[in-house]
Specification:
Strand content: under 5%
Number of strands: 0
Shape: extended
Largest sheet: none
Structural class: mainly alpha
Length: 234
Amino acid sequence: MDPIKQTLTAFLLDPKNHDVLAILKGLRNGLVYGTKIRFPHALVMTILFRDGTFRQKLTSILTATKQHALNLASFVTIYKSTLYLLNYLHSRGITQFFFPYTSSTTKIEPKYHSLLAGLLGGYLIFGRSANSTAHAVNQQIVLYVFGRVAMALAKLAVTPSSVGGNQVFPSTVVGKDVSQVAWPVFASLSWGAVMYLFRWHPETIQPSLRSSMKYLYVDSDTWDGWKNFLWHNV
C-alpha cells in the first residue's frame, strides 16, 4: 500500500482521532442527506405549483436545497461537538458542579446530554432565520421533527417501563385500549382541524400546504369545458 494511504488510514482508524473525525463525517452526511432529501422535493413542488421563469424556478430549487443541506450539516456538527464536549466534561467529573443530582458514574453518558446538545443546535440553526427562504425550510424541518416526536412520546406513554417505556396508565389493558383508539382519534382531529382552518382561516396555514389544498379543494370547483375539466385547471 502507498505510504501516504497507509498514513491516512492509520490516522482515520486511530481511536484518539475518532471524535473529531466523527464530527467531520457527520457534517459530510448532513450535506449529502439534506441535498438528497430537498432537491427532488423542491424540484417537483416548484415545477407543479410555482409560477415564474425557468431561471427563477431553478434558483428557488437550488436555494432551498442549499439551505436544507447547510442546516442539517450545521446542526449535526453542533450536536455532535456539544455531545462529545459534555461527555468529556462528565468523564472528568466537571459536570457534577452544574448538575449535582445526576449520577456520579463517569463512564455512563447521562441521558440529558443529548437533550442539551439538541436544544443548543435547535436554537442556533432552526430557531433563528436570516431570510424568508431559510425560515420556510426551517419551518418544514421543525414541523416534520415535531410530528415524529409527538408520535414517539405517544408510544412511550403506552409502553410499559419494564421494556424501556414510560407508561402513564396503571393498567396494561387500559394502555392497549388507548393505543388502539389513539391513532384514529389523532387522524380525525388532524384532518378536521386542517380543513376547518383552510376553509375559514387559510392565511394561517403553511404556504406549500395551502397551495396543495387549494389545488385539491378550490381549483376543482371551477371549469368551463372538457379541457379544463379533465386536463388542467382554469
